[in-house]
Write a structure and sequence with these properties.
Layout lengths: L2 E5 L3 E3 L2 E3 L1 E2 L2 E2 L11 E5 H5 L16 E5 L3 H9 L6 E2 L23 E4 L4 E2 L7 H4 L1 E2 L3 H17 L7 H7 L2 E4 L3 H17 L2 H10 L1 E4 L12 E4 L2 E4 L3 E4 L4 E3 L2 E4 L3 E2 L2 H5 L10 E2 L12 E3 L4 E2 L8 H20 L24 E6 L2 E5 L10 E4 H14 L3 H17 L8
Parallel strand pairs: 7-8, 7-9, 9-21, 11-18, 12-13, 12-18, 13-14, 20-22
Antiparallel strand pairs: 1-6, 2-3, 4-5, 10-19, 15-16, 16-17, 23-24, 24-25
Helix pairs in contact: 2-9
Length: 419
């Protein structure tokens, strides 16, 4: 009997939920996470009256379903040959003026690519989810901007105490990695260049960085570095393990990422750290025609959760798909006997981080003992900006980003809008 595969129970497809309640699908049950990737027969599938796509026919292009739209998923789709494969575009229907319940449907696939990313690590510290802002999505950046500008306005309100003013202008960044360092540098620039003179000294004096790790590697102008371990996050203060209370007006959490709740619920083998286990060709060994890449997947040799890793994996997998597709391996259960070619090998291209005031750190060595470029200063900042532009996917967006940088350099940031 022919086999039809589909995305299993409770799949969240970039906000689209497919939910099954018993033997019947019920779109009103708000179960948010995926559980399984199932296999069922044509007869069983036809008995379920859920609208959606039908399995691909012999004369149709094989269908690729991608879960996720981050660095890995986008780079994979950019390189995928759409003359060979049919990609499904899905997005949520919930939002302003749209139905609150998601539209549920089935999506049969020939090849499934899981690139759903990861979630910030909170180390199960009380109060982090409720009071901190993360640095993962565009919505997080918008929330940080809104909170910062509101705090600046509130600090100038009549009758506000000196203690409350200092708290509102006290920004804390948890985490000492590249993301935390870059944000601290940009925030310092914002305070030094955009704040009113009466507020500048307060903000500069009380812009603080509390490190979750115990190593400090960068000393930023306008940023005070404090070593410590967070014990609990309260609505207005952070409690450290040594009993110190650190007041804050804005708390940004940047301590790395771990497996998401979505990945944890998948009935798939896990790699060290809880991510989806994959082989050298980015395949999930226990399921046919299922691949995983980016922050949601890993091998025995743990790779860092970096954009360059996800992008390189996406580029590699697109090339693999294009190659097997030309050999008629794109359909379900058709890879057997086709050579997959060389396995994926990651080579570190280096690290870059902006530290504010048109300065950056650039280290293009593959290891600390290897030879290569290692530099800091204005030239490094130009290299960092140039490298960033090359990672933008389209020429249209590259032009937009470059123009935005130029106007900001000449006229400064627009801080007149809060929303």
């Amino acid at each position: 009997m022919p086999i039809r595969r589909y995305l299993g129970d409770n799949v969240n497809l970039n906000g689209l939920h497919m939910i099954r309640d018993g033997n019947q699908y019920n779109p009103t049950v708000p179960i948010p996470f995926a559980q399984l990737v199932e296999v069922e027969s044509d007869v069983e599938a036809d008995n379920k009256k859920l609208p959606g796509l039908e399995p691909t026919k012999p004369n149709e292009k094989p269908r690729v379903v991608v879960l996720g739209s981050g660095w890995a998923g986008c780079r994979f789709l950019k390189g995928l040959d759409t003359k060979i494969y049919d990609v499904i575009h899905c997005k949520t229907v919930a939002g302003d003026g749209m139905p609150s319940e998601p539209y549920c449907f089935k999506v049969p696939y020939d090849k499934l690519v899981i690139a759903s990313g990861a979630e910030p690590l909170t180390f199960n510290i009380n109060g982090v989810e409720e009071h901190a802002v993360f640095l993962r999505d565009v919505s997080h950046a918008q929330e940080i901007r809104k909170k910062l500008l509101l705090n600046l306005m509130l600090s100038e309100s009549p009758g506000i105490s000196e203690e409350e003013k200092q708290r509102l202008l006290h920004c804390v960044v948890i985490g000492g990695g590249p993301t935390g360092v870059e944000f601290s540098g940009e925030l310092s620039d914002f305070i030094m260049k955009m704040s009113m003179n009466g507020l500048r000294q307060y903000a500069t004096n009380h812009l603080t960085k509390v490190l979750q790790a115990l190593e400090v590697v960068v000393d930023l102008s306008g940023v005070r570095l404090v070593r410590g371990v967070v014990k609990e996050v309260l609505p207005k203060t952070i409690l450290l393990s040594d009993g110190t209370n650190v007041p804050y007006g804005l708390l940004v959490w940047s301590t790395g990422v771990g497996p998401s709740r979505f990945v944890k619920t998948l009935g798939l083998p896990k790699a060290p750290g809880g991510r989806i286990g994959i082989d050298e060709w980015l395949r999930v060994p226990s399921v046919e025609d299922v691949f995983a890449l980016g922050d949601c997947a890993d091998r025995e040799a743990v790779l860092p959760a970096l954009a360059q890793v996800a992008e390189r994996e996406g580029k590699y997998l697109a090339g693999l798909f294009n190659r097997i597709g030309k050999e008629n391996g794109g359909k379900a259960n058709s890879i057997g006997g086709i050579s997959l070619g060389d396995p994926f090998v990651y080579q570190h291209l280096g690290s870059m981080a902006s530290v504010g005031r048109y300065k950056a750190l650039v280290d293009l060595r593959q290891s600390k003992d290897a030879k290569g470029l290692s530099h800091a200063g204005f030239v490094s900042w130009l290299i960092w900006r140039s490298a960033y532009l090359t990672r933008v996917l389209s020429w249209r967006n590259r032009f937009y980003v470059a123009v935005n940088w130029a106007t900001t350099f000449v006229f400064g940031r627009d801080n007149s809008r809060i929303g």
